[in-house]
């Protein structure tokens, strides 16, 4: 068998909300340089993710992976909880 590499995007972010059943809101952050001055600025993105076991809680650091559209807003799936919130 040949191991094929997945083309799916992965991101690491923090769980912001878990008020829905089997869903969570994850905020990802990336550093982008300013076009003129070159200073790095933080840009945030919130996305709705699928959490079938309701395994994460607010403040957890999670790894999410792109997937097929699961609902109107859900296009990401939680792969693993990297770090639990204190």
From TrEMBL:
One of its GO terms (cellular component) is cytosolic small ribosomal subunit. One of its GO terms (molecular function) is structural constituent of ribosome. One of its GO terms (biological process) is translation. Keywords: Ribonucleoprotein, Ribosomal protein, RNA-binding, rRNA-binding. InterPro entries: NA-bd_OB-fold, Ribosomal_uS17, Ribosomal_uS17_bact/chlr, Ribosomal_uS17_CS. PROSITE patterns: RIBOSOMAL_S17 (PS00056). Pfam families: Ribosomal_S17. HAMAP family: Ribosomal_uS17_B. NCBIfam families: PRK05610.1, uS17_bact. Belongs to the universal ribosomal protein uS17 family. One of the primary rRNA binding proteins, it binds specifically to the 5'-end of 16S ribosomal RNA. Part of the 30S ribosomal subunit. This is Small ribosomal subunit protein uS17. It comes from Thiovibrio frasassiensis. The gene is rpsQ.
């Amino acid at each position: 068998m040949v191991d094929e590499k997945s083309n799916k995007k992965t991101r690491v972010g923090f769980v912001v909300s878990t008020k829905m059943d089997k869903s969570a809101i994850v905020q990802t952050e990336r550093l982008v340089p300013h076009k003129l001055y070159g200073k790095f600025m933080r840009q945030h993105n919130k996305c709705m993710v699928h959490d079938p076991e309701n395994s994460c809680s607010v403040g957890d650091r999670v790894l999410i992976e792109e997937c097929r559209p699961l609902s109107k807003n859900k296009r990401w799936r939680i792969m693993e909880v990297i770090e639990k919130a204190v």
